[in-house]
Structures are given as C-alpha cells and as structure tokens.
Write a structure and sequence with these properties.
Mean pLDDT: 85
Helix content: over 70%
Order of helices and strands: HHHHHHHHHHHHHH
Number of helices: 14
Strand content: under 5%
Distance between the termini: 48 Å
Low-confidence stretches: 1-10
Largest sheet: none
C-alpha cells in the first residue's frame, strides 16, 4: 500500500462540540466504572507476584506497541490506519479479557491484576504513550501535525478525563467497598451499552465511509489481533513458568479496551475516519477472535484448575 499523510487525512468524521462533550463524559464514565471494579487484593497480587506482573506489564506496554510498529512499517499502511493500530496497541487490557481468560482456563487473578495495572498506567500515561510510539512512524506523526493537534493539550485533556474518575473510583473502592461493588455492578452494563451505542451510531451516520473502507480494515485488524495474541503467548512461554499465567497473558495482550481508544480518536484527534473505523473494527473483531481462541483452548488444550 502507498502511504501519504494527505491521503490518510482525506477520510474524516465530523464531531460537533456537543458530541465531543458527551463522548468525553462517556470516556470518564468508562474509566470510573473500571476503577470501581478494582479491589485491594488486586493490588496485593501485584506485590506478591512482582516478576510475573512485570513480564505481563512489559508485554502490554512495550511488546505489543513494538510489534504493531513493525507491522505497520512492514505493510506500508496509510497513516490513518497506522495511527489507529498504534492507539489500540497503547490502550489497556479490556475487562472482557478477564472473562475470556476464565473460559480458556487461564489464571483469572493474574488477568484481573494485569487489567488493573494497565488501566492505572493508561490513566496516567496513555496520551504520552500514544505520542511516543507515533513519533517512531513518520507518516502517522506527520498526520498528527497535519490535523494540527496540540500535543501538550492532547496530553493534558486526555489525562484529566482519565485520572479524575480513576482517582474517584479507586478511593470509593478502598473507602466504601460495598458501595463500589453496587455501583460497578450497575455501571458496567451502562458502559457496555455506551460502547455499543457509539459503534452503532458511527455505522449509521458514516455508512458510506464504513462501507468504502471496512473491507480494507477487517483483514488488517484480524492480522494485528492475531499477532497480539501470539505476542502474549510468546512472551509468556519464554518468561513465565506458569502455563495458566501464560494463557492469561495471551488474552491480556490480545483483548484491548478499544472503546477507550475510539472515544479518544473522536474527541481528541479530530474524528480521523480511518483511525476511527480501524479502532471500531478492532472493538468487534477482538471479541470474535478472543472467544474463538478461548473455545479452542478449552476444547483441545484444557489446563488443570487450581
């Protein structure tokens, strides 16, 4: 594929100021919901398993973005698609990874702790991580300049939207654990509906753009997601001695909170069409890939439960 920033910028999804505010509020609500689900014993797991937590953390925040960068360079992908892939790779593990890990027979406690750790890291440093990895890909970096994104404002705005609800959620989980459980139970379906609503609304309002570019995205997303699962498996196989932790790492790296990435694209990056479609496609595909892989593991390579 040829790669020019101008061509990549040609596809755009307009987002009016009111919609941006609503999307930003949705992002804050999603992060609050994630934080309400954190428990003191999750942090305790980090302290009691420092080596395996470090391996898993590095697989998510270093190995996956690096593999993604190599992939977009190898395929010479358009800047907008490359940007979307980098954003996905920088997002934290999604809550669905915990459920899929359990289905696959992986270490659920390890999965939950990794999701917690990556979520906290992302709340603090996600915009910095995105800009860091984008800086290593010339066309995507040029695209950020072309759409006139103020990098300092991007970091400040995104961090505020993520950190404040995270802090409120963590405080509630520690100070009022029973309340946190009740709120998390009620908020989680709402957060899921918000994500589904965003995807459906995007498909309806941008039908022509989705149809004209969707076929191009699916094989790229499938390849990217497959490499993400493989990255988790290879890192776990080489550096973890526990097979159940290795299996959990497969899904922690392969299942990303793409909904968070989609909202960031729409609210902070000017509604870049190719990036938005890529991230939106990932948010659907990784569940298909994840549940399929978990079912294969469960049927053909079951692990003994402890």
């Amino acid at each position: 594929m040829t790669d020019t920033a101008g061509a990549a910028a040609a596809v755009s999804i307009a987002v009016d100021p009111v919609t941006q505010v609503v999307l930003s509020a949705s992002l804050a609500f999603t992060m609050l919901t994630v934080a309400l689900g954190l428990r003191p014993h999750d942090f305790g797991f980090v302290r009691s398993h420092p080596a395996s937590m470090l391996v898993g953390f590095c697989a998510q925040v270093i190995a996956l973005p690096l593999v993604t960068l190599l992939l977009v360079k190898a395929l010479s992908l358009p800047a907008g698609i490359a940007l979307g892939m980098i954003i996905v790779a920088c997002c934290p593990g999604g809550a669905m990874s915990n459920l899929i890990t359990k289905i696959a027979g992986g270490d659920s406690a390890y999965s939950v702790a990794l999701t917690m750790l990556s979520s906290v890291f992302s709340a603090l440093l996600l915009p910095i991580a995105i800009l860091f990895w984008v800086s290593w890909h010339g066309p995507a970096n040029a695209l950020i300049d072309e759409i006139n994104i103020d990098r300092a404002e991007f970091i400040k705005n995104t961090t505020i939207i993520l950190v404040i609800p995270l802090a409120i959620g963590i405080w509630t989980a520690w100070a009022r654990p029973e309340l946190a459980v009740k709120l998390h139970t009620r908020f989680m379906p709402v957060a899921l509906l918000i994500l589904i609503g965003l995807i459906v609304a995007g498909l309806i309002t941008n039908y022509d753009v989705v149809v004209s570019h969707g076929m191009q995205m699916t094989p790229i997303v499938a390849l990217h997601n497959g490499l993400a699962f493989l990255t988790g498996g290879i890192v776990g196989r080489l550096l973890l001695k526990d097979r159940r932790k290795t299996r959990a790492l497969v899904f922690e790296v392969g299942i990303q909170n793409a909904g968070l990435g989609l909202i960031i694209v729409m609210t902070q990056l000017g509604g870049l069409g190719e990036a938005a479609i890529l991230v939106g496609t990932w948010s659907i595909w990784h569940l298909i890939g994840g549940f399929t892989l978990a079912s294969i593991f469960r049927k053909f390579a079951p692990l003994p439960m402890r």
